[in-house]
Amino acid sequence: MTYPPLSQARDALNVQWYRSPMPPEVFRALSQRSDLKGWKQAGGHLALFAVTGSFVWLFWTQEQWAAFALALFLHGTVGSFFSGTAPHELGHGTVFRTKALNKIFLYIFSILSWWNPFDYAASHTYHHRFTLHPEGDRENLLPLHPNTDKLFLLQLFTINIMTQPGRTFGKGGLISTLRETLLHAFGRVGSTDISSNEWLESLHKDQPDQHRRAVQWSRLLLVFHGGVFVLAWVTGLWILPIVLSLFNFIGNWLGYFLGLPQHCGLRENVPDFRKTVRSMRLHPVLEFLYWHMNWHTEHHMYAGVPCYNLKQLHDAVKDDMPKPRNLLGAWREMLEIWERQKREPNYQFDTPLPATAQTERKRAAVGEEASIGDLAPEGLR
Questions:
Q1: CB atoms within 10 A of CB 256
Q2: Judging by beta carbons within 10 Å of its beta carbon (0-12, 13-18, 19+), is residue 377 exposed, middle or buried?
Q3: Distance, C-alpha 219 to centroid of its chain
Q4: Rounded CA separation 93/324 (Å)
Q5: CB 120 within 8 A of CB 89
């Protein structure tokens, strides 16, 4: 499908989003950023990554291969949230009160995980402003397939080598990531027959300054990870690139199972986040690894609220919100939707609202409520 230029979409689309009302003093309290909570979330995630990486190194040196494999699986599982999840919230600039700390941690997580925060900042700004309105948001292009094919699952639970980019923002598995990063370093994208590449090309045409920064970052990624491999070759410590450069392609299972339910199977072209986004209840450990993005409807509704306050935000507006799914319930729902979409390609699930829910938008959202933090690049402010 051919889409209009994003500059035209910005002029034509004026989505009047419904946001669940709450007392102004509650909203102000929930919007407060905290360096201490930021260190617990971002510093804690990095510390856990360092612990699992240390065990990988230890068991490698001791040639305890069963323990090594288990440690590597855990290291990849923890590290797979470096790509997309950690840079997502840090990109919003809401994790730390100190702005510089948001940037520092954003770049640390991004460089380790082959993530490009500059392309993503442009993409995710459009995603929040025009969620699931394809003319202005193709970060997740419906319909999405909740893939449970055996070969795909095998890669998710071992090494993600062959997965290709598709209808969500991302570079795919190891081979595809290397190819896409190399192309991006020369200012190019892959085939625009692939939805995520078409979206990137549209963003690059719309935001050329941001594209130049993205190209420079892709070159830095190649220099950094190339340097890790050179150091391994010189020292003979081939465990270094496994721990620092390849972890992002190992044990991707949990990131996939938690991430896909955000929008899969839901409605597009409606001005109500409760219909376009799905929230889930998770175990606190999973919430921590997922940076509390399981409260995803609440995040879209009030994107300036820090991730560690989203559960409290849910409690403040829960009478106006759909009942959160659990993880198994969300996947059961998505698979049932997909089976129906194979018979009825235009079908989209209409999330039921509670009897206490409001639907009429009573006032225009003030700037603070509509804020997406510090996400938007200069060309989109």
A1: 17
A2: middle
A3: 22
A4: 26
A5: no
DSSP H helix total and E strand total for the chain: 19, 2
Residue 47 binned pLDDT confidence (cut-offs 50, 70, 90): very high
β-strand pairing of 280-281 with 325-326: parallel
Q: How far apart are CA 14 and CA 153, in angstroms?
A: 40
Candidate from 194-208, 212-226, 350-364 with smallest mean pLDDT: 350-364
Cross-strand pairs, 18: 272
* Tokens standing for residue 381: 């402010």
Contact 60, 76 (CB under 8 A): no
Sequence letter at residue 211: H
As a whole number of angstroms, the distance between CA 333 and CA 341 comes to: 12
The overall average pLDDT reported for the chain is 96
Structure tokens at 216: 């420079």
What amino acid occupies position 239? I
Label residue 1 by pLDDT band (50, 70, 90): confident
- CA angle at 357 for the pair 356 and 359, rounded to the nearest 5°: 140
Distance CA 229, CA 238 (A): 8
For residue 365, name the pLDDT band (cuts at 50, 70, 90).
low
Region 75-104: mean pLDDT is: 98
Q: Which two tokens stand for residue 260?
A: 């896909």
Neighbours of 295 (CB within 10 A): 26
DSSP string, 319-364: GGSPPPEEHHHHHHHHHHHHHHHHHSTT----PPPPTT---S--SP
pLDDT attached to residue 364: 56
